Amino acid sequence: MLREDLQKALKESMLAHDVATTGAVRLIIAGMKEKDVEARGKGAKEASEAELMSMMQTMIKQRNDSIKMYIDGNRSDLAEKEKAEIAVIERFLPKQMSEQETEAAVNAVIAAVGASSMKDMGKVMGALKTQYAGQLDFGKANVIVKNCLGGN
Nearest 10 degrees: CA dihedral of 135, 140, 146, 152? Predict the structure, then answer.
């Protein structure tokens, strides 16, 4: 589904002469192709939707870091370009979970994997990434997991 949506968006943006959207979608497709190559190296036909969602989350994080640097360097024009790319990337991600939904998901996964201490943090985070790729801010989830497992 995501792959078709990206190809459709690329065609539409090219027909509309929307240079910013075309560029951002091409970046996503290039990242998708890299993930597919990695997946073939691991024996899979192509990257999973979860891996692609995770890749797009990483792209957003990178752009947010760039925005901060551009603002610090008084380059608001470049910061605006990065913000526009984030808006395009977010169009292809599912709705982000609220703080309450994130807490509920973390508690459900902790119960499902039987986590009881900080030693189980990797298991919990792995399960969250598998089940909620693209929907969850894993930085916030990490803090919630630590609090629930007693690793304040």
Answer: -170
Residues 2-90, CATH architecture: Orthogonal Bundle (1.10)
Task: Supply φ then ψ for residue 17, to 5 degrees.
Answer: 55, 35
The set of long-range contacts for 30-38, using a CB threshold of 8 Å and a minimum separation of 24, is: 31/55, 31/56, 31/59, 32/3, 32/6
Domain ranges of the chain: 2-90, 99-148
pLDDT category at 23 given cuts 50, 70, 90 is: very high
Tokens of 18: 């929307």
pLDDT tens profile 5-21:
999 999 999 999 999 99
In contact, 96 and 140? CB cutoff 8 Å: no
Considering the entire predicted model, what is its pTM? 0.72
Fold entry, domain 99-148? Arc Repressor Mutant, subunit A (1.10.10)
Report the Cα 8 to chain-centroid distance in Å.
Answer: 20
Query: Residue 31 and residue 94: Cα distance in Å, rounded?
Result: 18
